[in-house]
Fold these 2 entries.
Entry 1:
Amino acid sequence: MSTPAGNAAVYPLVGIVMGSTSDWDVMQHAARSLGDFGVPYEARALSAHRTPDLLIEWVDGLVKQGVKCFIAGAGGAAHLAGVVAARTTLPVLGVPMPSKHLQGLDSLLSMIQMPKGIPVATFAIGEAGSANAGLFAVSMLALQDESLAKKLTAFRQRQAESVRSAKLPELK
Ligand code: RP5
């Protein structure tokens, strides 16, 4: 779907996949977290049940290119993250989509209850989980990248400062 730099020579460090283009509203928050830190990513809508072969092909392709982790967002009987995790030993971060009938509880339980042996690190339902999955990927990459670690520290400091300086509204 997109890469932040639009530069063909930059290989993605993170693969973002979602089960449907309808998930993009939520999954763009993961992409934004990565983009804000200058982390190259590739984002695609690919389904574990509608396009299984294409999904596996995409995962294998990114692994070959040297991607460091995957973020997978899906809703309902959300098996996408589990299927990605079954294909690679790289870390897979799962984001449960809010769903129409069960408000994302179905997505959360499907994703978080991975059977022993194939882990998926599951985040909160919706936008917060998506943004946090992006930030978590940045933290992992920062383990081996000092300048990224500094950016992350600066981000935390700015965030803390905005809370410290926040003023409550006047009484009505
Ligand atoms: C899942 O089904 C997707 O991840 C999405 O959250 C949900 C609905 O998909 P669409 O019907 O909008 O394509 O596979």
Entry 2:
Amino acid sequence: MIDEKIISQAIIESYMKELISSLEVDVAIAGAGPSGLICSYYLAKEGVKVAIFERNLKVGGGMPGGGMMFNRIVVQEEAKSIMEEFNITLEEYKDNLYTASSIETISAFTYKAIKKGVKIFNLIGVEDVIIRENRVGGVVLNWTSVEIANLHVDPLGVKSKFVVDATGHDSEICRIVEKKVGGVEVKGEKSMWAEKGEEEIIENTKEVYPGLIVCGMAANAFYGSPRMGAIFGGMLLSGKKAAEIIITQG
Ligand code: 48F
């Protein structure tokens, strides 16, 4: 017998179980774009407890759209091994560049991150951080629908040892810290220069305030580096570096 009440109960109970178990994590990541997903995967692979909070209905950030809605991405030689770790089909193009399906790529990242134990909560945005003496200690969350409807509803907090800003072009979490805590300055991204952007994104992936790591396009926005368009090697290497920074700090 299929009972509607049991279906509702199953959904609510299983969701709540996962949410309650994520109220205190090692790492809370804002944004389930490519850099956030890759960061989460490499953390979870080492046994780190990770939750991602994604404002959108769907995961993937800017990746599914490829370049101007041509749903392909370009990846360079340096990030090939990451693509291979996810068994993603690569086609060699030229100049040490490869193409891949943006849909296959983001699906593989998402699937493998979840299988490693990452908890992903979509439709929840990070609207603030929890702060302790000179350290970021977690994220402050609210439903995207609350934000869209501009309702006055108080948020809830999730504690974490580290917060990762993987929010992309707006570097949202760093901007919150800049505005409310101080001690950091978000310079804002510069116009497109693919090679420079790809080079600088690795260096820009850092702990910018105690407990707050920035990766992906947010890292370039933080340091005033250029955008790079639909080449994604830097995003992947940046996400991996963010995970390594956290793992090194224990
Ligand atoms: O923008 P996004 O894909 O960032 P990324 O991982 O990758 C950048 C590339 O997609 C592309 C590029 C390649 O060269 O430049 O743009 O750095 O993913 C960011 C995700 O964060 C979510 C947003 O919905 C998106 O899915 N996001 C943004 N702000 C918040 C957030 C927030 N405050 N709380 C939760 N999620």
